[in-house]
Design goal:
This protein has 280 residues and is α/β, with parallel strands linked by helices. The protein has 12 helices and 7 strands. The protein folds into 2 domains: 147 residues; 118 residues, no CATH class. The longest helix is centred in the C-terminal third of the chain and has 20 residues.
């Protein structure tokens, strides 16, 4: 479940959005917290937006965020759900809205409002492959509030993570972002392994993962190719950056090396179950 103080702020946002909140789907690390007991910590909340649904809402999302005390960072014009042009621009870009808390720096929460950087189709799948979850807590004024929130399903989240892993590993943003992209690649690889690790029924998860691409076979082939490229061998790039992730906070003694080796073997066998039988 989303921890505090992010939960307070997400409840505040959902209450303010009203019916429009149905078109906000949680993705990223916060989505993992709905099915992972020990998901990694993060202050950001990533959303995929149903821009088609939002066009029918008599609500300016940007104005509502500003009313709640958020500030746009690297915004691309006015975020208006009734503007087709600006929504299309949002599909190809991203916006970060930061909420300033009246408390200490440690209570600062940030909200990322963005549609898939890779285009509309992956984001549409993440929206279609989502489920409602109950969420409750207290609003900033201390009053209790309970509602539901739509969260990307694990197999769709792995799809998004694979696309992000490929982008970051290949450092498509250039040398200036090389270090940051490598760190992000490590995180995405670790998230993928963590999500797959908690699936009780590996066969069903594989079926769900593959069937999400029925409406776009080309995207499916691309994602499955990324999956094979990054996880088919123990020396594949995804497992190499996953190894970098797990050794980051470990002493490099003999026992630690053995534990790391065992974990890479475990992760490799796990990911092989998700791969198609025929090599792409």
């Amino acid at each position: 479940m989303i921890p505090e103080p992010q939960r307070t702020y997400i409840l505040e946002l959902l209450k303010a959005l009203g019916p429009a909140a149905d078109d906000f789907v949680v993705a990223g690390a916060q989505a993992m917290k709905f099915f992972l007991e020990r998901a990694r910590a993060t202050k950001d909340i990533d959303f995929v937006l149903d821009v088609v649904g939002l066009r029918g809402e008599e609500l300016s999302i940007g104005a509502k965020l500003q009313d709640l005390g958020y500030m746009a960072w690297k915004a691309l014009g006015t975020f208006n759900s009734k503007s087709r042009y600006l929504i299309a621009q949002r599909i190809r870009g991203s916006s970060s809205w930061h909420r300033k808390s009246s408390g200490a720096r440690r209570t600062f929460a940030s909200m990322w409002i963005r549609v898939s950087m890779r285009g509309l189709v992956p984001g549409s799948i993440a929206i279609a492959e989502s489920a409602l979850h109950a969420i409750s807590g207290r609003l900033p004024d201390g009053s209790p509030f309970e509602t539901s929130i739509r969260v990307t399903k694990p197999h769709a989240l792995v799809m998004l993570k694979l696309l992000a892993l490929d982008d970051r590993y290949r450092n498509i943003r250039g040398l200036a972002e090389a270090r940051h992209d490598r760190e992000e690649a490590r995180t995405h690889a670790a998230d993928i392994v963590a999500i797959v690790s908690v699936q009780v029924d590996a066969d069903k998860f594989k079926t769900d993962f593959q069937q999400q691409f029925q409406a776009d076979a080309e995207l499916g082939l691309r994602v499955l190719k990324i999956l094979g490229t990054y996880f088919r061998e123990t020396t594949s790039p995804g497992l190499l950056v996953y190894e970098e992730f797990i050794v980051a906070d470990k002493p490099l003694d003999r026992n630690a090396r053995r534990e790391v080796s065992q974990e890479i073997e475990r992760a490799h066998k796990l990911m092989l179950k998700l791969l198609p039988l025929k090599s792409l």
